[in-house]
Amino acid sequence: MKFILTLTFFFTSLLYSNVITISDKTNFKEVLSSSEIYIDKTRSVTIEDVRAHKIEFKNNSEKLLSYGYSPNFDVWIKFTIHNSSPNTIHRVLEYANPLTTNIDFYDSKDNGVLKDGLSNINKSRKTINPTFPINIGQNESKTYYLKVSSNITTLIIKFNLWSQKDFYRNELKHQVLLSLFFGAMMVLAIYNFFVFLFSKDISYLYYVLYIVSLSIHQLFYTGMAYIYLLNSFDILSIIQHASIIVAVPIISLALFFKSFLRTKQYKKLNTVLNILMGLIILLVIVITFNSDFNQYRNLLSIILLVHLFIITIHAVIKKNRQAYFILLSWLFIFIAVLFMYLTSIGVFNIYEYFAYLIEVLFIAEAIIFSIALSDKINSLQKEKNSANKALINQKKTENQRLEIQVQKKTEDLNISLDEKTLLLREVNHRVKNNMQMIVSLIRLQSNDISDIKMKNIFLTTQNRLNAMSQLHELLYQKDDVSYVNAYEYFTTLIEGLEDTYSDNINIEYKIDTDLQTEQAISSGIILNELVTNSLKYAFDLNEGCITIYLAKNNNEYTLRVKDNGKGFDKINIPKSFGLILVETLVSSKLEGQMITNTKNGVETTIIWRDVNE
């Protein structure tokens, strides 16, 4: 009896060597390694051909099958499940890859087909990976078939059998962890975007573009976008341009490196980087029209990443502080991209050992990049403070140098001014002496003249020359020759006239301002003529009073000469040469106006503006 039981067990084991045996206590079972596969390169095999045993399946022992980019064939998978328990069991078959384009699921005892994959996502599906129901009666065996193909993304096949409770628990955990990953990435993106707004450093904008594009890539790569953001039509339209989704993070990362490490200072490396970026952009455009070149995309991206790593090493050698942070983050990026590439081509599946390693690596490198950017701000602030200190010291040094130069220049100017002042005083002194000599000659000559009229002419000429001579005398005695003390000048001038004509006339002075030198010359001649006329004609040797008034209001001068003599008839008495001279000086030199009043004596008012103010 024992021998018969042993033989029965032996033959049963042979019969079910590829059968997956489960019970109501089996919560998880990896399926693919106990399946059979057939590759249909003609893409003409139907489920009827499979059920009619027209194709020959081969045993498979691999837990994951990866065919890379394989748009030209279908893969058929066959597996049998035996329920060894006395109860009907209900399980969930999870196809553990959200990126496969077409998945057809067949039950050997049912002629229907369940479809899933990127091109057939069920609107009611809320799981990241495609799932199919498995229902097996007590002590029943069922054979199932899967036909899978992927004409857009890489073809990676892996599926597991779950109890419903464990599957949805695992699915919830999976989606929560992915949500935390995307949330962390968006927080980093928002933070660095606001840093860009305040700092205006383009590196931050490139980094934000990198984080956002990487997050979008991961939304598609992990399958989150397919169940929460897009419908089947949108998914297929976007997946058709998957090369762009892959290329944008790579290009954004390259732009970030160019700006952050200032790769322009490494001319040859920067030139190669620009060429690689251009080739990737060109390849993306070509792939959009011809997908046969899709296989070169990952290879070129890897080359670009390796070149960025070489630039980082070169920057570290050149003592670029930011390159140390980049080198550490590069370790995470390189490992993440390498494992993603190895998984996509079927060499090594990192998810078998570390389910969320890629997401963890991406968050780690994003955090290090953020730290690097913060360190850059601190470095720039230190450079700014150092530059400010250097600028302050330079300003102090420059101010001291300028002060010395100004002091020396001032000394030179003072010497030159003293020389010119001395020279001008000497000129005024010589002019005054020459005029006095001319006056003396005229006086000597007039002594020989008996004609009274001619004698008066000579006397008047003496007085006019004396008026100008007195001004040069004052200028000779002053250091500042731009202004003349009007009171001193007028009193000196009038004293000479009093000595000449009369000494019993009272002269009153009301002078409240000084005069510019040019104006003083004209004013002195005018005053000489007006006072001379009053002394000669107003009083007839009687006592009288002459008032001389000079004031300045704002920028307007007023000169007034008034006597209380007998006055004259402006109509019947012709103008003398002296009055013509006065009017000429008022109009041409002073550019003013003259008003004469002959009632109750003679009052002459002259008003002109100070053109220098």
Descriptive report:
With 613 residues, the chain is an alpha+beta fold. The chain has 3 domains: 18-163, Immunoglobulin-like (Sandwich); 170-389; 482-613, Heat Shock Protein 90. It contains 15 helices and 18 strands. The strands form 4 sheets. Strands 1, 3, 4, 5, 7, 8 and 10 form a 7-stranded mixed sheet that branches. A hairpin with a 4-residue loop joins strand 17 (593-597) and strand 18 (602-609). It is rod-shaped. 30% of the residues are buried.
Compact overview of the structure:
This protein has 15 helices and 18 strands. By secondary structure, it is an alpha+beta fold.
Tell the overall outline.
rod-shaped
Number of strands: 18
Mean pLDDT, to the nearest integer, reads: 79
Through-space gap between termini: 138 Å
- Tally of discrete structural domains: 3
Proportion of residues in β-strands: 15-25%
Computed Rg: 56 Å
Unreliably modeled segments? 1-17
Number of helices: 15
Helix content: 55-70%
Largest sheet: 7 strands, mixed
Output the structural class.
alpha+beta
Question: Characteristics of this structure?
Answer:
single chain, alpha+beta, Immunoglobulin-like, Heat Shock Protein 90, seven-stranded mixed beta sheet, five-stranded mixed beta sheet, disordered N terminus
Describe the secondary-structure layout.
Layout: H1 2-15, E1 19-22, E2 28-30, E3 36-40, H2 47-51, E4 58-59, E5 65-83, E6 89-95, E7 102-107, E8 110-116, E9 131-136, E10 141-157, E11 159-163, H3 164-199, H4 202-222, H5 224-228, H6 232-239, H7 242-260, H8 267-289, H9 295-317, H10 321-344, H11 357-446, H12 452-477, E12 483-484, H13 486-501, E13 505-511, E14 515-516, H14 517-537, E15 544-553, E16 556-563, H15 577-589, E17 593-597, E18 602-609
Parallel strand pairs: 1-5, 13-15
Antiparallel strand pairs: 2-11, 3-4, 3-5, 5-10, 6-9, 6-11, 7-8, 7-10, 12-14, 15-16, 16-18, 17-18
Helix pairs in contact: 3-4, 3-11, 4-7, 7-8, 7-9, 8-9, 9-10, 10-11, 11-12, 12-13, 12-14, 13-14, 14-15
